[in-house]
Amino acid sequence: MTNSDSKLSLKLLIDTNTNKVLFAEAEKDCVDFLFHILSLPVATVVKLLKEKGMNYGCLPNIYDSVDNLNDTYIQSKDILLKPKSSVGISSVPFLLVNDVPAQMEFYGCGSSCIRYYVTDDPIALCSSCRRSMSRKLTYVAPQGVKKSVEATGGFVKGVVTYMVMDDLVVKPMSTISSIALLTKFNVKDVGVLREEVVNFGMEEALKLLKASFESKTVLTSVFMSLIKVPKKC
């Protein structure tokens, strides 16, 4: 299953009096997706939203300015338009663009040059012998470093269900925390509450990404339009 074909699900708890999402129950894969947003370079976010016509603010103008500049005036477009994520991960659904490398790769001089220069561009020239820096190097992590997110699979552990608030605050789910939230939202009649499971794919994921920059009620703004709440008599 490719990232674009993946589907995630959330169980929403809805207050039918206000037609707002109080919070959602989420499994590991959903939380991994939300946390993965933090690792995305700004240019990647702009590119993803631009492709769906979801521009926001002036950042797309900066992106287009770089893209439209002739090579006479700019040294390297790819550094700005196709930045490399600091997190190497393949198990998180969505938001992984094919032309954006998931992790850094390093190269050394392809000749027997005694200088130990390193680059992340295989077509760069060695500063000493001026030959191609095409020899791929292997990165060795220091001892004691924890396993990477790629090795462990995502960011969070799948031992619990997580609670995702309407403003995307994430915390472990518990009965006590659920009751405390109902008190916080002044819900006196549980009869007004409704559970709704929503499945969402790439389209909704991008809407959620965009809403996270614009709103404090992200789950409500993205998912309530997909749900038909019966009108009260």
Task: Summarize this structure briefly.
The chain is an alpha+beta fold. Helix content is 29%, strand content 15%.
Fold and architecture overview:
- With 233 residues, the protein is an alpha+beta fold.
- It is built from eight helices and seven strands; from the N terminus they run ββααααββαββαβαα.
- The strands form two sheets. A five-stranded antiparallel sheet has the order 6-5-2-1-7. A two-stranded antiparallel ribbon has the order 3-4.
- A hairpin with a 4-residue loop joins strand 5 and strand 6.
- Mean pLDDT is 81; it is low at 97-102.
- Pfam families: DUF674.
- InterPro entries: DUF674.
- This is DUF674 domain-containing protein.
SSE layout and pairing:
Elements: E1 8-15, E2 20-26, H1 28-36, H2 42-51, H3 59-68, H4 77-81, E3 107-108, E4 135-136, H5 149-152, E5 162-165, E6 170-172, H6 175-184, E7 193-200, H7 202-214, H8 218-223
Antiparallel strand pairs: 1-2, 1-7, 2-5, 3-4, 5-6
